Amino acid sequence: MSSRAARTRSAATGWRRASIKASAGKYWAVFRTQLVNSLAYPMDLLGRSLLIVLFMWIFMNLWRVTYGSTGARSIAGLTLADTMWYLMMAEAVMLSKRELSDTITEQVKDGSVAYLLNKPFNFILYHFAAGLGDTILAFAGNLAIGSAVVWLMAGPPPGLAGWLLAAVAVVFAWLLDFCFSALIGLSAFVVEETNAFRWIYQKLLLVLGGLLIPLDFFPAWLQTVAFNLPFAWIIYGPARLFVDPSLTRLGAVLTQQAIWLAVFGCAVWLIYRWAVARLAVNGG
Amino acid sequence: MPAVSVRNLRKTFQTKRKAAGLRGALAALFRPAFQTLDAVRGISFDMEEGELLGFIGPNGAGKSTTIKILTGILHPTSGEASVLGRVPWRQRQELAFQIGSVFGQRPQLWYHLPAIDTFYLFGKIYELDEADLRRRIALLAEAFEIEQLLETPVRKLSLGQRMRCEVAASLLHKPRILLLDEPSIGLDVVAKQRLRATIQRMNEIEGVGVLLTSHDAGDIEALCKRVIIINDGEIVYRDKVSTLRRRYLTVKHVDVRYNEQLSPDFSLPGVEMLKVGRFGAKMRFDARVTPVEPVIGALAAAGGLADVTVSEPTLEEVIGAIYARAEAENE
Lengths: 284, 331
Fold this sequence. Notes:
The structure holds 2 protein chains of 2 kinds.
Chain A: H1 3-13, H2 20-39, H3 42-70, E1 74-75, E2 78-79, H4 80-96, H5 100-110, H6 114-117, H7 123-154, H8 160-186, H9 195-207, H10 220-227, H11 236-243, H12 247-277
Antiparallel strand pairs in A: 1-2
Helix pairs in contact in A: 2-7, 3-4, 3-7, 4-7, 4-11, 5-8, 7-8, 8-11, 8-12
Chain B: E1 4-17, H1 21-30, E2 33-47, E3 52-56, H2 63-70, E4 78-83, H3 92-96, E5 99-103, H4 115-125, H5 130-143, H6 159-170, E6 177-181, H7 189-206, E7 209-214, H8 217-223, E8 226-231, E9 234-240, H9 241-248, E10 251-258, E11 272-276, E12 280-286, H10 292-301, E13 305-311, H11 315-330
């Protein structure tokens, strides 16, 4: 619907309803504003990206020894360079995620959640748009610095296909991670402290998500477990696609992501609606 | 139809109670004790379209809870409310287009960005078209005298400047009702006056209704025609501000100085002498009991007047008296 038509109707009823275009425009504006906000402190942004240098250096030393001692050129189909580029992508995804669960928990605890509820937008989508604005910049920084380091230590990166396919999978990985963050954050409505859940989630990503070790190196039974859980499709999926791009693999990753998104997306939606209805704002 | 209508509104919060110390913490773990807090206990009131209504009360009286129910953020425990014909907690999003709100203790402007960035963001959120938004920003910037501030990061503004930007932001979408929760908190006298003047002007120009909560009687006195005083979740007083003055500001304090010496037993009928000196006196009387005219006449007749000051209690003192009376009635 054009904005003119929307306005005419609003004039007739005195009340308006958001058209899809106007709704999309809102979240786009939130995303852009957060982007600009994150750019307000370029040194901070750079500082956050330096951590990946340390991680890559440690991983390089670790895996150089491992590959050296086995004498094999590749383990489970991954060369040393593949492993390093895999870990770089995995860390870039992990390090650029905003601690959204923390933000939501704080907002629930100190009552400021209320002040995002009296605007004509959806609280959950608002956070997603704002989170994305922050994440994209951090991801770009991590990717640039991480790539430079790994290139120096382990050789040239995967081809263009790897970058493109990984980019698609990373967007869905963020969405899926957002669902987990939102669930942890919203649990603050019931339990007062959510640090434990956050800690567990991070460790699940570390081990079963493939952040520490590519899942291909696990014994078969553990691989089966990991592949049937959502965590692998946040970290392992995009990172593995990056070093071994193929449309078959992309299809498999996206299918898994779509299934888990449907499950956890619905959960977030239901819990959000339930939580808002029983909201007790602190500091009333 | 009134713009805001509230009937028997109640809000009860359940809070966990913990006794002090480790023992208390352990006890709460196994058998949590809840205590019920009645934040709002069955209040009813109306607000007309375009009205400036003051909502006043001490901290924890239930002012903010009421405002949060009216914006649709909180569901009441029982009772009814309608804002512009809508039930706020069921039609929160629709209502959001028609009401603006400022919560003095919760900034909505993005802290690290210039206010103009938040203004453009709000323009999108409230679905204003680009040209309308520009005109609106220009108009509000002039009214609030913030033209020079719009491009400065909000964190670098003074509290008074920031508050004017906050209120301007809440008016961008031309709301019919503005809910201001403690807008003057922490402001100095000059900043307060400036903010009040602007709110008043916007009310005159656009007819936006303002429901203002404050614990500062000065805000209400300067802005509102009608006031509701709330204490402990109940309405203890509601009437015109002018009536409040007339009814409660009847005690006059008089400070008088003479050019010649007074006799030490100087006194007037119906007037309580607080202090009598050699050249002057301080006294108090209730104008409902003792008419003003004979008192002033007698003062003039007593000798050559050098100076006379008649003062009334501040609205603050009056409200204090109303709270005290309400509490005495409860006991």
